[in-house]
Every structure is written in structure tokens, then in C-alpha cells.
Amino acid sequence: MDGLKFAIKKLPARTIVGIARRTRNADAQESIPGCWQEFLTQNAAAKIPHRVTPPVMYAVYSDYEKDWTGWYSYLLGCGVTRADTVPDGMEVRRISPQTYAVFRAKGRMPDEIVGVWANIWASELPRTYTYDFELYDKRFTRPSAKEAEVWVAVNPEKLEQGA
């Protein structure tokens, strides 16, 4: 589809706890780096109880106003086994089981992530606008050849139809 390279994966439910912002792409150059700065300077990951092992960070996009051109919620956080205790100033996102188009971003960050999103926005991918996320695991911590993944919720029936 549109020359985009991606894999289709079904993902079970997962829970993420972290720091959130309400933003839109027009403001994202300030709001998203600001969220990262707050998360890292406060050592927020260490404050999140019940983190999954090995640790995985997520940047979750949800609560879309309409599509990628409108307002949405952005949450930077960690996967958890349960969210019965949420630290002050943090929120929870419970992602239901979904089908995703998974894209790999490899190289200079955050430029590669931004490039992947630009290609997704320009595509005809049958997005559901429920929960999308970026996944940052041990591959992202490499000194060079950093990698992350962009998971975009899609409608599998429309994807099979080539819509």
C-alpha cells in the first residue's frame, strides 16, 4: 500500500502509565519534546510501580478529536503489569486488543520517527484512530543504529480490501 513497508500484527491488551499532554501536530514540536524533557528530568520511569520486564517505554497517541490533523492525547510512559497505583501527575492508558501496521524507524532520532509519521499521514492506511504508539525498547538505547517502532491501529478488513 502506497509503497510503505510495514508488518501487520495483532496485539493483546496492554497498560501504560506516564506523563500526558493534550496536543496537535501543529504544536507537537514544542509539546512532545517538553513531555520527554519532563519525563526524563523527573526520572518518571523509576516512579512507576509494576513496570514490565524488560522495561519498555511507549509514546501513546489516543483520544483523537478526528484524525491526525486534530487534537489528540500524547502520553509518554512505561508498560506496567497493573495500574492500581498511579503516581501523582501521571495518567493511565489501557490499550485494548487491536490490529496494527508496524513500522520500523532506524537511524537518527527523532528525525526517523518524524519521517515515519509523515509517510503514514500521507498514506491511505485505513486507520482507526483509537490507540497508536511508538515503542522504545533496548534497541533505542544503542549508541548508534538506534531503532524504535511505530504501531498504528488499522481496520484489518479495510486493509485486506486494499482501501
List the helices and strands and how they pair.
Blueprint: E1 7-11, E2 14-24, H1 28-41, H2 44-47, E3 57-62, E4 71-80, E5 91-95, E6 98-106, H3 111-121, E7 131-136, E8 147-153, H4 156-160
Antiparallel strand pairs: 1-6, 2-4, 2-5, 3-4, 3-7, 6-8, 7-8
Structure description:
This protein has 163 residues and is of the alpha+beta class. It has one domain: Alpha-Beta Barrel (Multidrug-efflux Transporter 1 Regulator Bmrr, Chain A), CATH 3.20.80.10. The chain contains four helices and eight strands; from the N terminus they run E-E-H-H-E-E-E-E-H-E-E-H. The chain has an eight-stranded antiparallel beta sheet with strand order 1-6-8-7-3-4-2-5. A hairpin with an 8-residue loop joins strand 3 and strand 4. The protein starts with 6 loop residues before the first strand and ends with a helix.
How many DSSP H or I helices? Answer: 4
Q: Which stretches of 5+ consecutive residues score pLDDT under 50? A: none
Assembly state (oligomeric): single chain
Instruction: Give a quick account of the main beta sheet: strands, pairing sense, barrel closure.
Output: 8 strands, antiparallel
The CATH architecture designation is Alpha-Beta Barrel
The percentage of residues in β strands lies in: 35-45%
Q: Going by CATH, what is the homologous superfamily?
A: Regulatory factor, effector binding domain
